[in-house]
Design a protein that fits this description.
The protein is an all-beta fold. The chain has no helices and 12 strands. It has strands at 2-3, 9-15, 20-26, 31-37, 44-52, 58-64, 69-75, 80-86, 92-100, 106-112, 117-124, 127-134. It has a 4-stranded antiparallel β-sheet with strand order 1-2-3-4, with no helix packed on it. A 4-stranded antiparallel β-sheet has the order 5-6-7-8, with no helix packed on it.
């Protein structure tokens, strides 16, 4: 959960019944709920983390549990933009934590289950720079940025 510039809450979460990424925001009177990624048959949305940019637009990192990828969704003001951040053959994308750098670009910490590593993804142009932060086995679960 994160608060916007007016102090209103925004929440990203996993809908286990529909295996989808959900997003909810409170407008001061009621909760507005959307499905940024319904997965199209994939199990998406677990380990969701959310941050808002300077325009109060959400950026969400989460696991694609079917493909074991780290995925990312952002609201551009009119629609959700979805992308895969890390599609390595490893089981990766667990325990995500997202923040924006000083330039407004997303930075995501996450766990690689196959190798047991803490990983970091930084948005760079149209792609992502992926790096391993710590290789001590089973290190990096529940990291927070």
């Amino acid at each position: 959960m994160v608060l916007d510039s007016a102090g209103l809450p925004h929440v990203a979460y996993y809908d286990a019944i529909n295996t989808a990424l959900k997003y909810a925001r409170f407008d001061g009177a009621s909760w507005l709920i959307e499905t940024p990624d319904d997965g199209l048959g994939d199990d998406v949305g677990s380990y969701a983390s959310i941050v808002l940019d300077s325009l109060d637009r959400p950026h969400i990192s989460y696991l694609n549990g079917t493909n074991w990828n780290l995925d990312y969704a952002r609201w551009d003001g009119s629609r959700w933009i979805l992308s895969t951040v890390d599609a390595s053959p490893n089981q990766t994308g667990l325990f995500t934590s997202i923040q924006l750098d000083t330039g407004g670009r997303p930075v995501i910490a996450y766990f690689d289950l196959t190798d047991g590593d803490l990983r970091l993804a930084r948005k760079a142009g149209s792609g992502w720079n992926l790096e391993t932060v710590d290789t001590a086995f089973a290190t990096g679960r529940h990291a927070a940025l």
